[in-house]
Structures are given as C-alpha cells and as structure tokens.
C-alpha cells in the first residue's frame, strides 16, 4: 500500500510539474483599434458606418460613428488630410457629403468609444501604442476611464499633427475581459469636426495547460483517493 501511495505522489507531482510547462495559444497577438477600418484592418470608404467605434454627443447615448467626407464640401479641412492613411476620420452619423457642419456643438465634449476583449491575454504582457488627432481639440484618450498621459490638449488645436501615446506592459491599466478605449474632443464652430486614431494593443495569450497535464494530475488524485479508501 505504501508503494502505491508513493507512486501516486510521483504521478501527482509530475502533474504539477507539467502544469508549469504550459503552451501559449500564440507567441504574440495584436488587436487593431484604428478608427474607420473593418475587421481586416482595411480603411472604410467615406460615408461608411464604423463597425466598431461608436460616438455620442452627451456621453450616454452612443451610435455607430460615420467615416467623414472629403473636401471641398465634406468635413475634411485645413491639414486634416495629412494623416498617414492607415485609419479614417470619424464623426457623428448625421454628417453629409454636401455640408461640413456637424452636430458637435461649440465646446461640448464629444465621446468616441470602442471595446476590446483581453480575456485570453496575459495582462502582464499587454501594451498599447498609437497616435491620434481630433478636429478641433482633443479632450483626452481614456483607457477604462483613466486618462492616457499626454493626450489632453487643454483647448489647443489637434487636427494638423499627431499626438503620440503609449501604455507599457505591466502598467495595470488593462483588465481581464472587456476593456474600453474612449477618445474625447471638442469643436470651436460645429463644423469640420472628427476624430482619428491609429493604435494597436499587443500581448501574449495566457498560457493554457496541455491536456496531458490535466490527465496526469487527475490520475494522481484518483490513485490517492483509492489509497485512502483502502486505509479506511
């Protein structure tokens, strides 16, 4: 009986040891969070509703954002066209191709938001980096309600040049499960108003124990249970 117990302990210990050797789902995974792009990362045409980004003029009611229209009669103006082209400018869904006006209002905070899922990620490895513009002024980029440093322009214009930002791995800024990225902005004239963001989340998938590991572990438990029942 003693030899069986020793064997069970060896098997159980091997299970624990194997559990430490888990195979990640992928070496590294990225999530594209660019505005005005589809699931494949392709830039959407003017007038298309964004499938991921929503927008609100009051912070409560959100609807799908729309890719804005080009000059001379659309919302792109005055240096907004100098973006790198890997994303598209988005605004409220009521913008049209024949009028640069928006429903942002003057000095109101406008909110653009999207979520992304980090359920399968090892949060210690997750980072984020990108660039943004807001026409007319950035009121900050927020991750899970926390302002990303350096992204609030304090009323200054932010439509002619990029604002770079990053969140390093190990920052504790991310949560397991659904995360929310929110870009806020204001307008000085309720015309030629939009938001532009290119950003990528990178990280390693959380390690998942191999099936053989669990089989070995539970086999050890079964043998120990048998030994205890014999003793009883």
List the SSEs and their pairings.
Elements: H1 2-19, E1 23-24, E2 29-32, E3 49-56, E4 63-67, E5 90-91, E6 110-117, E7 127-135, E8 137-143, E9 146-147, E10 158-167, E11 178-186, E12 194-203, E13 207-208, H2 211-231
Antiparallel strand pairs: 1-13, 2-12, 3-4, 3-6, 4-5, 6-11, 7-10, 7-12, 8-9, 8-11
Helix pairs in contact: 1-2
Protein described:
The two termini are 12 Å apart. The protein has two helices and 13 strands, in the order H-E-E-E-E-E-E-E-E-E-E-E-E-E-H. It has two domains: 2-21 and 209-231; 26-205, Jelly Rolls. It has 232 residues and is α+β, with helices and mostly antiparallel strands. A seven-stranded antiparallel beta sheet has the order 5-4-3-6-11-8-9, with no helix packed on it. The chain has a four-stranded antiparallel beta sheet with strand order 2-12-7-10, with no helix packed on it. Strands 1-13 form a two-stranded antiparallel ribbon.
Keywords for this entry:
232 residues; alpha+beta; seven-stranded antiparallel sheet; 17% helix; Jelly Rolls
In short:
Helices cover 17% and strands 34% of the residues. The chain contains 2 helices and 13 strands. The chain has helices spanning 2-19, 211-231, and strands at 23-24, 29-32, 49-56, 63-67, 90-91, 110-117, 127-135, 137-143, 146-147, 158-167, 178-186, 194-203, 207-208.
Strand order of the largest sheet: 5-4-3-6-11-8-9
Rg, Cα atoms, Å: 25 Å
Low-confidence stretches: 4-25, 213-217
Q: What global shape is seen?
A: globular
Mean pLDDT: 86
Beginning-to-end CA distance, first to last residue: 12 Å
CATH names the topology of the largest domain as: Jelly Rolls
CATH arch. level architecture of the largest domain: Sandwich
> What is the CATH C level class of the largest domain, in words?
Mainly Beta
Estimate the helix proportion, in percent. Answer: 10-25%
């Amino acid at each position: 009986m003693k030899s069986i117990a020793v064997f069970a302990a060896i098997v159980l210990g091997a299970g624990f040891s194997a559990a430490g050797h888990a195979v990640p789902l992928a070496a590294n995974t990225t999530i594209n969070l660019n505005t005005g792009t589809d699931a494949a990362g392709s830039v959407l045409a003017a007038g298309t509703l964004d499938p991921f980004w929503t927008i609100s003029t009051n912070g409560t009611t959100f609807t799908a954002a729309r890719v804005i229209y080009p000059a001379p009669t659309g919302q792109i103006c005055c240096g907004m066209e100098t973006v790198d082209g890997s994303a598209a400018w988005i605004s409220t869904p009521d913008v049209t191709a024949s009028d640069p006006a928006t429903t942002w209002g003057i000095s109101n905070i406008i909110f653009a938001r999207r979520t992304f899922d980090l359920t399968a990620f090892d949060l210690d490895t997750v980072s984020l980096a990108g660039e943004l513009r807001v026409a007319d002024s950035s009121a900050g980029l927020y991750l899970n309600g926390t302002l990303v440093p350096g992204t609030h322009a304090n009323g200054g214009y932010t439509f002619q040049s990029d604002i770079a930002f990053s969140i390093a791995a190990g920052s504790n800024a991310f949560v397991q499960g659904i995360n929310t990225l929110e870009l806020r902005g204001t307008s000085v004239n309720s015309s030629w108003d939009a938001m532009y963001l290119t950003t990528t989340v990178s990280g390693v998938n959380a390690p998942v124990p191999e099936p053989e590991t669990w089989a070995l572990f539970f086999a050890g438990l079964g043998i120990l249970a048998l030994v205890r029942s014999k003793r009883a």
